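Treating backbone geometry as a discrete language has practical consequences that deserve illustration. The amino acid sequence and the backbone structure tokens for this protein are reproduced below.
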Amino acid sequence: MGTATAGKSGRGTPTAWRNWAGNVTATPARVVTPTSVGELQDTVRRAAGDGLRVKAVGTGHSFTAAAATDGVLVRPQALSGIQAIDREAGTVTVAAGTVLKDLNVALAREGLSLTNMGDIMEQTVSGATSTGTHGTGRDSASIAAQIRGLDLVTADGRLLNCSEKENPQVFAAARLGIGALGIVTAITFAVEPVFFLTAREEPMAFDRVTAEFDQHVAENEHFEFYWFPHTGNCNTKRNNRSQGPAAPPGAVSAWVEDELLSNGVFQAVNSLGRAVPAAIPSIARIASRALSARTYTDIPYKVFTSPRRVRFVEMEYALPRERLVEALRELKQLVDRSDLRISFPVEVRTAPADDIPLSTASGRETAYIAVHMYKGTPYHAYFTAAERIFTAHGGRPHWGKVHTRDAEYFAQVYPRFGEFTELRDRLDPERVFGNDYLRRVLGA
């Protein structure tokens, strides 16, 4: 869920907490960085006794106020690192404040890897799973779907060990709990021996990629593409397992693609677009035509993830996969016919159905459409129009990204929504872990 900056812990004048994108701020009464699970349990009990609400925050990569609080802000970063590896069971247990990048590097050293992951790895493992962070996959689902066990501090300060065998109802829901059920202190993930992925990036026309979408998803383990608004151009990426050996992009090529084009030039282009919106369509046409195909092979986290230093605000909706192409074509028509000027590509990914009550892929084959706007650029008109399209197709918004939906809507699009809220009533009847965002999305 997230934190970038926070105020003084305990005494003194509290200062604002701010998320990565800078679109959410809060002023907690106090900030606590527990160094043990016992200290965290004491923090929760003390806050409840003082009538204060408690929220744990990670690294601030949520665009919603899911982690905002005027009560006690818990920073879990001191609770980090791998706690246990069980090679026979194929699992790793990791403290909740561990950053995904550190986990990926540590797993690779042990010859292990997660099966799938998102495209950035700056989040804590608990923040990423609690909000439903995902990559793209035909058969492999979100990071939360790879959880095999977790430990949860509840509103009365108890520590619950949860798995399919122990507290199974809590386990089922708390894998993706938006921070509403308690504070996760440790997570056990399924892992596998490290493997190689070959990535093939290739420009492709919008009409072709949408016409062939189902075929691309069926033929590739991990398929995604980006459409450049104001153009008919896309860039596709196909990741599939291979025998290796590693053949990463050359140092110069990697720097040009990942640092210069994806961060440096992209930053400059977006700054220009913010200053001169009329130039954006021309810039988009030039940028999308400049793309070239490339193929490379490496271990998973080096293929799945990329550095993202250009700051933005994002909305993402999960649609029934069969509705993806129709919705995306409607979005393109909207941009083409409007005065909107969109400098960020639109990202499309997929996920198989899973069994997590509040997962955006719960119970259905899913495709995601993510829309972005450069930080500091007005985004409401674009996001409002896009959201109207997405909700008309039964879309479910990402829990950590901008949206305007409420509990009434979620009760319609999540068959197991009531199962989650009933469990919350049982675990946190006084709403120790509540905040304004959770009141909106889960109800009072």
